[in-house]
């Protein structure tokens, strides 16, 4: 994801460590002191672990608000391709009752303010049981989620400020997923599988990757990370969940998309959950959960043709590409899942801390040149402003500024040299050309300077987690260090980015010198990776019981940004054209529809944001079964699209189109389309309405 260049230009013109160890590496606090342990009867059933699983809808405002990921002001949502979800898995050590909460969210990021709100509400509900030490929330980095959920100014400008409605949906949904997992904790068995996937990613910054040493490049054939890890979760003979890690960006649908969607990883999860396991997202109490999780995907694109400002591949159709990349991940995961063997080892161990990345001294043992370096406050480079040219159709500065700090006006932006703004720090950012010195601007809170790091162990597996977007070699070096320090095979160390906060990229110091997009967005300077290695090394000491917990402040910096409002105009009261009522069918279906055909139906409607229907649906495709209408598709389904618009010349009327791409294997029969919504009057009162088409035949 890149910061909003256009928005930032406008705006600047006016302006602890905590450690929980159990199960072998070190001792932890007495489990009896943990509040609000699950009420489940663990004596029922068998298994080596206790595991709970839950999922929940986290979809925010789907109409008239900016989307999150590409930071394009004109990428305004106007409907839903698919709702996006949170998937929670809670592991509990049977011996100590110590928990680990892992949540995967189909969003671009889970920001610091969202994490803080989540932890605060978990404290109120469960006491100290679930806290910063044992809760991990990681984003799939989907670039089609709802914008405005952060309180860091750089990440809400394109969405025109903080959007409380979408923020609440995401946090409420994550809490709901955790609660559902908490309430179904039961004995389970874990199985570990591995495979390789070579045709779902390409390196979009090969010139930077090639600057790495040969021994690093040998680990990444073709400049990609093909590794797929799978954790299979069973209760007896029943499969109840799967977690899988693979590196590719959530940018298949590109910045031309304006329909809320989970992109390729969310769709891969849908294929497994819905298509294979029959999950109904609106009614299933204890569903099968499939979490497709990111690793070090900073330089990995799913747009395989690597065309500049025309993202495409393996076809020229971005929607089809999304489905293909999703299916390839599903297939690779399924292969590893089928060959999985029992997870060895036992117990849970975690080390967690917050690090002030704006002021880290990095000793020579962690730097490339062996000299002491330091990190400095955040700076967005000119090449970062250029966008990832392989994933964007639009770059607002192209061709004047391009990746690699190229372009006729690139050096114009190096204005720190004129103003001596960063004179004391600049050697640590060089050769970056300053585009916007976010960490130095007089109004604080543009992006976070303090970020969380986590290492956790689950049996024989060790997970190294960070908040940034890490290139494949950055992740490799972190894995290598932790593997060596903890004496764990490299194949059992998994790197996981996009975790518990967000602040752009981390490249290797060698890659930094190429000043591709990822380097320009490596905010804290050339040795950002070295600062990570320093702290991961110290965290290994904690896990081994060789040092006391690191003292750090908690991430509360965002509270200074509570002033960030939304500057979107309020949604006006709904109105109707003369002679119409809400729910009227404006474009009816034909009497018969063939399987494999596309069906469009238009309704007289209201603004979707009047009521967001989180966990529910605006529309349904219903089939007549035994004299009763039965829902067979809704907002969660891949075969339908909800598309909202204002008719020409109106600022208060709404038309919503439901599109059903009828599957080729759809059972024949009698069907209808239903749409519901809520009309808002001048006083803000909502009145529910529902519209239905006449029945039609699928033949």
Automatic annotation (TrEMBL):
GO BP field: ceramide catabolic process; long-chain fatty acid biosynthetic process; sphingosine biosynthetic process
Names of required cofactors: Zn(2+)
Keyword Hydrolase on entry: yes
GO molecular function list: metal ion binding; N-acylsphingosine amidohydrolase activity
Catalyzed reaction equations: an N-acylsphing-4-enine + H2O = sphing-4-enine + a fatty acid
InterPro entries: Ceramidase_alk, NCDase_C_sf, NEUT/ALK_ceramidase_C, NEUT/ALK_ceramidase_N, TAT_signal
Keyword DNA damage: no
Keyword tags: Hydrolase, Lipid metabolism, Metal-binding, Signal, Sphingolipid metabolism, Zinc
Note accompanying the cofactor annotation: Binds 1 zinc ion per subunit.
Enzyme Commission number(s) from the entry: 3.5.1.23
Gene Ontology CC: extracellular region; membrane
Binding site for Zn(2+): 141, 249, 469, 505
Domain Neutral/alkaline non-lysosomal ceramidase C-terminal: 564-698
Signal peptide: 1-29
Ranges of residues in domain Neutral/alkaline non-lysosomal ceramidase N-terminal: 49-533
Similarity-based family: Belongs to the neutral ceramidase family.
UniProt cross-references to PANTHER family, sorted A to Z: CERAMIDASE, NEUTRAL CERAMIDASE
Protein name: Neutral ceramidase
């Amino acid at each position: 994801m890149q910061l909003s260049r256009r928005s930032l230009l406008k705006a600047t013109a006016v302006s602890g460590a905590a450690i929980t160890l159990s199960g072998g590496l070190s001792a932890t606090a007495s489990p009896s002191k943990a509040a609000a342990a699950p009420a489940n009867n663990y004596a029922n059933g068998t298994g080596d672990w206790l595991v709970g699983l839950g999922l929940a809808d986290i979809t925010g405002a789907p109409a008239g608000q900016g989307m999150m990921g590409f930071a394009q002001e004109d990428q305004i949502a106007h409907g839903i391709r698919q709702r996006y979800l949170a998937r929670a898995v809670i592991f509990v050590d049977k011996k100590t009752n110590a928990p680990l909460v892992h949540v995967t969210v189909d969003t671009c990021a889970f920001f610091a303010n969202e994490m803080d709100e989540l932890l605060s509400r978990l404290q109120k509900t469960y006491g100290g049981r679930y806290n910063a030490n044992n809760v991990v929330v990681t984003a799939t980095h989907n670039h089609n989620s709802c914008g405005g959920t952060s309180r860091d100014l750089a990440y809400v400008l394109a969405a025109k400020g903080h959007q409380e409605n979408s923020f609440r949906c995401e946090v409420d949904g994550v809490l709901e997923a955790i609660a559902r997992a908490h309430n179904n904790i039961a004995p389970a068995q874990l199985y570990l599988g591995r495979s390789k996937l070579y045709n779902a990613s390409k390196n979009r910054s090969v010139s930077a990757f090639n600057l790495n040493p040969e021994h690093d490049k040998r680990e990444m054939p073709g400049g990609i990370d093909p590794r797929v890890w799978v954790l299979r979760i069973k209760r007896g003979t029943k499969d109840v969940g799967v977690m899988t890690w693979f590196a590719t960006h959530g940018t298949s649908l590109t910045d031309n998309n304006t329909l809320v969607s989970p992109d390729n990883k969310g769709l891969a999860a849908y294929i497994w959950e819905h298509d294979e396991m029959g999950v109904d997202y609106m009614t299933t109490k204890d569903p099968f959960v499939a979490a497709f999780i990111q690793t070090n995907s900073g330089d990995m694109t799913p747009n395989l043709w690597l065309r500049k400002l025309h993202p495409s591949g393996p076809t020229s159709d971005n929607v089809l590409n999304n489905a293909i990349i999703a299916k390839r991940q599903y297939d690779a995961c399924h292969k590893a899942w089928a060959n999985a063997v029992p997870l060895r080892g036992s117990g849970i161990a975690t080390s967690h801390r917050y690090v002030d990345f704006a002021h880290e001294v990095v000793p020579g043992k962690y730097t490339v040149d062996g000299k002491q370096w330091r990190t400095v406050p955040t700076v967005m480079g000119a090449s970062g402003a250029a966008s990832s040219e392989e994933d964007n159709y639009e770059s607002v500065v192209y061709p004047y500024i391009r990746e690699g700090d190229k372009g006729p006006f690139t050096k114009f932006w190096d204005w720190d040299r004129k103003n001596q703004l960063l004179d004391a720090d600049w050697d640590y950012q060089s050769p970056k050309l300053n585009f916007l010195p976010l960490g130095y601007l007089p109004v604080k809170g543009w992006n976070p300077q303090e970020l969380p790091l986590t290492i956790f162990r689950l049996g024989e597996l060790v997970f190294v987690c960070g908040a940034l977007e890490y290139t494949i070699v950055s992740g490799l070096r972190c894995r290598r260090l932790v593997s060596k320090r903890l004496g764990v095979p490299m194949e059992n160390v998994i790197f996981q980015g996009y975790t518990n906060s967000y602040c752009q990229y981390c490249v290797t110091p060698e890659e930094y010198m190429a000043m591709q997009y990822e380097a320009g967005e490596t905010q804290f300077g050339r040795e950002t990776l070295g600062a990570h290695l320093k702290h991961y090394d110290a965290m290994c000491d904690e896990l081994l019981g060789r040092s006391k917990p690191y003292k750090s402040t908690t991430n509360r910096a965002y509270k200074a940004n509570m002033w960030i409002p939304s500057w979107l105009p309020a949604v006006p009261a709904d109105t109707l054209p003369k002679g119409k009522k809400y729910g009227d069918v404006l474009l009816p279906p034909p009497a018969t529809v063939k399987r494999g055909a596309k069906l469009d139906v238009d309704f007289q409607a209201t603004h979707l944001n009047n009521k967001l229907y989180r966990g529910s649906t605006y529309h349904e495709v219903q089939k007549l079964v035994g004299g009763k209408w039965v829902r067979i598709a809704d907002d969660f389904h891949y075969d339908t699209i909800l598309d909202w618009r204002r008719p020409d010349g109106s600022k208060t009327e709404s038309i919503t189109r439901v599109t059903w791409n009828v599957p080729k294997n759809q059972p024949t029969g009698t069907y209808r389309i239903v749409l519901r919504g809520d009309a808002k009057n001048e006083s803000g009162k909502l009145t529910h309405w529902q519209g239905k088409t006449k029945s039609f035949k699928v033949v």
